[in-house]
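ok so i was messing around last nite and threw this chain in just to see what happens. nothing serious, just curious
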Amino acid sequence: MKLIKYHALGNDYLFMDSAEQSLPELSFVKRVCHRNFGIGADGILHGGVSGGSFSVTIINPDGSVAEMSGNGLRIFARAMLDCGHASVGEEFCVSTGQRQVRCKVISPKKISVAMGMPLFSAPNLPIGAKSGQKIVANGRPYVYYAVSMGNPHCVIFVDELVHEHTMSDGPILENNPAFVEKTNVQFAHLIDGNNIEIDIWERGAGATLASGSSSCGVFAVTRMLGQCAEKVSIHMAGGVLHLEEMENGEILQIGPVEKIAECVV
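result:
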């Protein structure tokens, strides 16, 4: 199998061209994404272009399918450039999960994605969580806000980010029965109206250095609460992602992508 490895702010994916290779089996996904027994990745992007239409399936390292990944979509756009299916300056629509997003290759190392509208009421979200609901993990009480970017997010504001709490409480919150399809978890600290720092526990992947959809979820909740500007910088362990609210209410993310290697497995 031919794979291309990329990272976006440390969030790394393996790209597989769907025109050349079929969707991989669960056992292969788990093995190739393993950081000791495989190549190592936060997931696989299986997609390409057919009949002029772009689409991608995002697979978590545990084999589950993710409806959305902001970093993954930027990487997919870069892969389309590298494979000759897109060009610098071109905007094109990509189908992923239940959404269509618009990607633009600003430069080979800088990609923007219009991620769509945040949803505060969706089948994969708890009812009434928009106003903040109490939740407990390892005896620590939190107030969370739920939002969907096509995938579910549990946003928790804290006075200080403690990565040990992300590691211990993240998996408990991910599997809380309030979220019928499990959830991504973000601990967020509001630095000021233009800067937010977050620590992330991703559903199906665990702790990651960055997440585009998580950043959008945090931004959407912070905007809903009136605590940030229309443009913000999201600071994560892997780096900074820039977000803005578009006139139609969609969230635009702009961030880097780096190619790491081409692999044959």
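not much to say yet. The two ends are 5 Å apart (CA to CA).
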